[in-house]
Amino acid sequence: MRRLPRPVVLPLFLIAMVVALVTASDILVDWVWFDALGFGAVFLTMWTAKLAVFALTASLVGGTRALNGLLAVRASGQPVRQLRLVRGAGDAGDLADFLDRAAAILPWRSLSVTFAVVLGLVLGLYEASNWDLFLKWRYAVPFGRTDPVFAQDLGFYSFSLPVYGAVRNLAFVVVLLAAVSTLTIYVGRGAIDLTHGVPQMQPQMMRHLSVLLALFFLVKAGDYLTPALWAVIER
Predict the structure, then answer these.
(1) What global pTM score does this model have?
(2) Among 9, 160, 208, 217, which one is least packed by beta carbons within 10 Å?
(3) 3-state DSSP assignment of residue 146
(4) What is the mean pLDDT of residues 96-108?
(5) Measured between alpha carbons, how far is 124 from 93 in angstroms, rounded to an integer?
(6) Helix, strand, coil share of the chain (percent; to 5)
(7) Helices then strands (H, E): number in the chain?
(8) Distance between CA atoms of 210 and 199, rounded to whole angstroms?
């Protein structure tokens, strides 16, 4: 696995340090304020939930994206020259030559893992803002009244259903980004033959993309689950 060049590593390190310092200062200010009001336990509960949601989301998203990227790099084999259809005289031929050479020397595995880590951190931070949804679901209590259509306790719609919606939306984004990035790797490495009209690819590549497409439709099917079916799944 090729290492990322220093011009790429240094900016990422500086950005991570700035984000860490800003986050640490915000946490310290909040902790002092909550503790002064006598709500230190509330602060700890809130941040425990945030860290749990962040860690679960970042590990799931980053791991899924890294696995798909590495599988795509392995299935595509060595980069080949597939840009002949855009070649010609002058600048077009020079651009095609440059893209062909870049595809052969880029550290695809390192770039794929780095992108997966960044994507996991970004989505983890986003989902951490939904910490209150997960706490409501974790400590949900029944309302004692049921709706007239599905005969479900009203607490289900306030505590459980929003969490199911958030998880479904996250799964949709993860599968979609995995499919797009995987297809980008295949095309960038020249593993998909675009010179014969209909794109041609190896069987393992077709299986990989087919699995991602099946997962996409499976997540999409979750949109059509009624609250009654979600309640059955919850039980």
Answers:
(1) 0.72
(2) 217
(3) strand
(4) 58
(5) 43
(6) 75, 0, 20
(7) 9, 0
(8) 15
